[in-house]
């Protein structure tokens, strides 16, 4: 479907200016002690597209999740149509017409599209499902939205953009009056992104309020009626989109983040120095392109690129986590062959994986056990017995510069810590293996500002001591400030390598998008 | 070592949900023990206590072995059948070689490839452990039936064969109980002090993190199933020695499930990654004491089953609600 009128400019003319549907007052939310939202007040009007933007960790997703009942707020109040409400679950929010499309869409992937749309609100009498009736209603919904979805298709087989359409239909089938979209375009290609924006406009035209959580300023400016900016969990402003431009937004977003300034980068190693780690014509299994890259001692090389550009795949391949189909790797000039992560660690290559919860930490085990896991072999005698005292001392030493708040907490479960402190434990775990090449995949993801700075300091310090580092980050500022060189990935291979001096945000994006230099 | 007491240091030390989760079963066991001691005259006698331990030695061994498997986040539904097979083979081999020591050692050795088979298949091909061990339990029970299909071997007159099942050291402590104690101590040491032990926890706590940290799932999983099968084998030898006869036991599968229940009652997480050997001991003792109490009070057996069922549900509930975090 295409909404009739093209909205390439802000749209102050459409509904939006109407009465508030939802009023959130003084919302405060803490996670394990860390403040995610502090006294944030926002009103959401009937039928408006209201964007919530902010840097990573600003609290924008948290606000959306509080609104949709995914998180329970610790302070403040929410009213819907003037009546105070208390959401203890997404179901409760749905009861008041508030639905959420999460970043990881929660659909039953093995069921059909139509079954998903009506899941829990099946049409029909008693225990029987009226399939015919559902199909009729389904095609009505499709007509209304302009979606062309095959009702019997299995959701797992659909593209992400299509899955999001299923989620929209799901919300509509429940009579949602407000839909929270949490970074809906983050993982979409251009075409699907545009379609998603059209969908948001369509919902708004029907009088449904859309809360659009994003960090893509162009999208936000193109589609919003009003924009709320958050920084560090506090409310900076809510203004009409028509009065705003990209520059103003960026300034507001970084307003609270100035503290996160970067440590100064140690001098780049001599360009004649030999590579500590070198990948030659490496082809990741399932990919077509080959990648060649070398890292010198003490050098930090950034891997930048858009989602799906192949950075993480490369990182996993050279750390033994996935298979390499071709090419060769060498450490200190001698070739290494990797069949599994243990071999990479032995060879001196350690990966800090992207998801600390799924791939990095054992949340139910202690800080000590987590930190020690990859390096246990070094602390084990020939009978397989762990030298506990020595291990404890080494773990303490490696955690020392992390300034893990709360003093000596080696025996506390990692799950009790904030995201930032968990990330420090994960970093310490990698350092304990004494890597020659440390691969950091999004090392500050979901981390508060203070912890970010601490992690940056450690990265720079480790490099200064001679460790080679590959830093994968989606935050331009991180690769720009922390890397001697930046390898920009596009479509599975390195499109360009920029030096610290010549790189800026424009060049980075241009290389990542494949646009000409400007 | 890393018990909760040190964790709470620096904060207000008060009873919270986590304490209930961690030490609730222990309190329950003590309570039951004291109650039985006070209310009945013949409970707190060395004789009765040793009898309880002796009777439950096979269950204890099965449960200790199963703890290893469960800690890695997997199941072993074949342990009871391994025990049953060892009973038969123990008698057969002892008869065949006319030497109970060699015969029993050989029978015990058979459990090693069985455990290795289970663990290797499950981890190498990433197959569900529940189904794999369910299938292998069928295979093993078939083998046991086959092995016992000839004439029944009766070695009850051979004092070497019946040594571990019937002897009491100093006339007091059954050899079976000493075997349990030895296995418990060894397993505890392995779990707490070796690299292997840490890897067992890691595999259950977060398999992907363990893999990326260089832990070999195939190696660890194969090893835990071998340890589990060995413990089950020892249990089988005790039973064979006790009766002196190489006959399969019909309640093998029920004992497998009881062993799993004991592990869970003790507070070891059924999802893996959290638990300890001493917890399993408590779980087994709790089941054993309940049974003993009912026997002495003349309560019919169906009540024993019903109450045991509710105790398991309580244990799982305590685990689930106290372990839930924001």
Could you provide a short overview of the structure?
The complex is a heterodimer of chains A (518) and B (326). Chain A has 518 residues and is an alpha/beta fold.
Secondary structure blueprint with pairings:
The complex is a heterodimer of chains A (518) and B (326).
Chain A (H helix, E strand, L loop, with lengths): L19 E12 L2 E12 L3 E5 L6 H8 L7 E6 L2 E3 L4 H6 L2 E4 L11 H5 L13 H15 L14 H14 L4 E5 L7 H16 L3 E6 L2 H7 L2 E6 L2 E7 L5 H10 L19 E10 L6 E6 L3 E6 L5 H8 L5 E8 L2 E3 L4 H7 L1 E4 L3 H5 L6 H6 L15 H12 L19 H13 L5 E5 L7 H16 L3 E5 L3 H7 L2 E6 L2 E7 L5 H9 L5
Parallel strand pairs in A: 3-8, 3-9, 6-7, 7-8, 13-18, 13-19, 16-17, 17-18
Antiparallel strand pairs in A: 1-2, 1-4, 4-5, 9-10, 11-12, 11-14, 14-15, 19-20
Helix pairs in contact in A: 5-6, 14-15
Chain B lengths: L3 H5 L8 H23 L6 H26 L7 H18 L3 H25 L4 H19 L15 H4 L1 E2 L3 E2 H19 L1 H11 L1 H6 L4 H27 L8 H15 L10 H21 L3 H23 L3
Antiparallel strand pairs in B: 1-2
- Taking pLDDT < 50 over at least 5 consecutive residues as the criterion, the unreliable ranges of chain B are 1-13
Task: Give the helix tally of chain B.
Answer: 14
Give a quick account of the main beta sheet of chain A: strands, pairing sense, barrel closure: 6 strands, mixed
Our count of helices of chain A gives 17
Mean pLDDT of chain A: 86
C-alpha end-to-end distance of chain A: 35 Å
Name of the top-level CATH class of the largest domain in chain A: Alpha Beta
**Spatial strand arrangement across the major sheet of chain B:** 1-2
Under CATH, the topology of the largest domain in chain A can be stated as: Rossmann fold
Our estimate of the beta-strand percent of chain A is 15-25%
């Amino acid at each position: 479907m295409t909404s009739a009128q093209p909205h390439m400019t802000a749209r102050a003319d459409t509904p939006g200016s109407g009465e508030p549907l939802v009023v959130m007052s003084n919302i405060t939310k803490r996670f394990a002690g860390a403040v995610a939202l502090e006294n944030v007040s926002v009103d959401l009007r009937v039928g408006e597209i209201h964007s919530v933007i902010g840097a990573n960790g600003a609290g924008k997703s948290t606000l959306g999740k509080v609104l949709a009942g995914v998180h329970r707020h610790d302070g403040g109040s929410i009213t819907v149509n003037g009546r105070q409400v208390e959401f203890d679950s997404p179901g409760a929010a749905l009861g008041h017409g508030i639905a959420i499309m999460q970043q990881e869409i929660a659909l039953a992937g093995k069921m059909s599209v139509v079954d998903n749309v009506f899941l829990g609100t099946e049409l029909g009498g008693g225990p029987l499902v009226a399939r015919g009736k559902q199909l009729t209603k389904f095609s009505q919904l499709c007509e209304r939205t302009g979606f062309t979805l095959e009702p019997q298709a299995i959701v797992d087989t659909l593209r992400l953009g299509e899955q999001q359409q299923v989620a929209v239909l799901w919300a509509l089938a429940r009579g949602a009056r407000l839909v929270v979209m949490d970074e809906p375009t983050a993982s979409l290609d251009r075409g699907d992104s545009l379609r998603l924006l059209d969908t948001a406009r369509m919902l708004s035209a029907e009088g449904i309020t859309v809360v659009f959580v994003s960090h893509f300023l162009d999208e936000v400016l193109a589609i919003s009626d009003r924009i709320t900016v958050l920084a560090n969990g506090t409310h900076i402003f809510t203004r009409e989109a028509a009065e705003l431009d990209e520059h103003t937004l960026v300034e507001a977003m970084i307003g609270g983040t100035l503290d996160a300034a970067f440590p100064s980068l140690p001098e780049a190693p001599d360009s004649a120095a030999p590579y500590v780690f070198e990948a030659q014509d490496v082809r990741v299994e399932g990919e077509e392109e080959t990648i060649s890259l070398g890292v010198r001692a003490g050098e930090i090389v950034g891997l930048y690129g858009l989602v799906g550009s192949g950075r993480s795949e490369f990182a996993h391949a050279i750390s033994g986590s996935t298979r390499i189909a071709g090419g060769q790797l060498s450490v200190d000039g001698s070739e290494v062959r990797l069949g599994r992560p243990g071999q990479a660690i032995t060879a001196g290559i350690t990966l800090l994986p992207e998801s600390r919860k799924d791939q990095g930490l054992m949340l139910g085990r202690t800080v000590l056990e987590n930190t020690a896991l990859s390096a246990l072999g070094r602390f084990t005698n020939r009978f397989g017995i762990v030298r506990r005292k020595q291990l404890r001392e080494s773990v303490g030493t490696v955690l020392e510069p992390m300034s893990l708040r709360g003093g000596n907490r080696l025996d506390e479960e990692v799950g009790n810590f904030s995201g930032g402190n968990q990330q420090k434990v994960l970093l310490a775990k990698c350092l304990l293996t004494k890597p020659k090449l440390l691969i950091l995949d999004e090392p500050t993801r979901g981390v508060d500002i203070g912890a970010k700075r601490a992690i940056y300091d450690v990265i720079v310090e480790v490099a200064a001591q001679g460790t080679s580092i590959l830093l994968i980050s989606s935050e331009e500022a991180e690769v720009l400030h922390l890397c001697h060189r930046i390898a920009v990935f596009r479509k599975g291979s390195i499109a360009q390598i920029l030096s610290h001096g010549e790189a800026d945000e424009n060049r980075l994006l241009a290389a990542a998008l494949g646009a000409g230099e400007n | 070592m890393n018990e909760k007491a040190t964790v709470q240091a620096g904060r207000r030390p008060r009873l919270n949900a986590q304490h209930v989760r961690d030490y609730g079963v222990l309190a329950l066991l003590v309570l039951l023990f004291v109650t039985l001691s006070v209310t009945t005259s013949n409970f707190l006698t060395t004789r009765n206590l040793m009898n309880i331990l002796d009777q439950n030695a096979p269950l204890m061994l099965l449960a200790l072995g199963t703890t290893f498997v469960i800690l890695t986040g997997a199941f072993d539904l074949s342990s009871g059948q391994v025990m049953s097979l060892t009973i038969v083979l123990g008698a057969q081999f002892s008869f065949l070689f006319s030497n109970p020591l060699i015969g029993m050692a050989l029978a015990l050795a058979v459990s090693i490839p069985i455990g290795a088979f289970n663990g290797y298949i499950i981890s190498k091909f990433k197959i569900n452990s529940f189904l794999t061990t369910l299938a292998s339990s069928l295979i093993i029970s078939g083998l046991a039936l086959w092995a016992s299909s000839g004439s029944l071997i009766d070695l009850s007159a051979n004092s070497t064969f019946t040594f571990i099942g019937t002897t009491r050291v100093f006339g007091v402590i059954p050899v079976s109980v000493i075997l349990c104690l030895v296995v418990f101590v060894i397993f505890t040491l392995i779990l707490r002090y070796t690299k292997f032990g840490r890897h067992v926890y890691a595999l259950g706590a977060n398999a992907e993190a363990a893999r990326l940290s260089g832990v070999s799932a195939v190696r660890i999983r194969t090893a835990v199933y071998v340890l589990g099968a060995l413990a089950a084998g020892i249990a089988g030898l005790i039973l064979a020695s006790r009766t002196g006869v190489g006959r399969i036991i019909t309640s093998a599968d029920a004992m497998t499930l009881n062993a799993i229940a004991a592990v869970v009652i003790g507070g070891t997480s059924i999802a893996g990654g959290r638990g300890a050997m001493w917890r399993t001991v408590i779980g087994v003792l709790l089941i054993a004491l309940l049974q003993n109490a009912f026997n002495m009070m003349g309560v019919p057996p169906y009540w024993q089953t019903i109450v045991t069922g509710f105790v398991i549900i309580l244990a799982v509930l305590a685990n689930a609600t106290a372990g839930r975090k924001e």
